[in-house]
User: What shape does this take?
Amino acid sequence: MIRVVLVDDQLLVRTGFRVILNQTPDIMVVGEAADGREALDVVRATSPDIVLMDVRMPGLDGIDATRRLRDPSRPDAPPRVIILTTFDLDEYVFAGLQAGASGFLLKDTRAPDLLAAIRIVAGGQAVAAPTVTRRLIEHFVNVAPQPVRDQSPLQALTAREREVLTLITRGLSNGEIAASLCLSEGTVKGHVNRILTKLDLRDRVQAVILGYRTGLVHLDTE
Assistant: This one.
């Protein structure tokens, strides 16, 4: 059973998500909070696997709450966080990923996609709303201060791993990468895990960002 805490300052939003999730046999809502500070207390009391976290809330917002929940110095195992946002250009989404979130979704995400995202993140992977992934990266590349494109971190990768990272950065799934390179999905998964380990990355979202920052893939050639 995947245990979920809902964090949103709008009761109607939390109610909608709770109804959807509690109708699913393998997912259960174990707590709710109306702001980030309350979320910290609820998570401490319920030990969920996943937190669905709104961004804009009074008091402690979703970014700071995520940062505190994902603090590596915490003695307990931190829950994984999925950032929820209303707007696909929400300037706080990238900050949420930097704070340790495992992905982000729009609040109008279809119920089956929401459930799939929760299962994916509970399984240790990252998720991102397909309609906003590229625009998020564009926002980061165009707005955030950019260092000189330094590919030295990629020197630890084999030629095949660089190829896989390039396709990850372009947004391909493991299955699509396998088809493109004529490999099995298991082999691709192994490459992905080694890439994340060698580059000290938390998940695929960080891998995508690194791919753009190092110039492995350029936005204007996509």
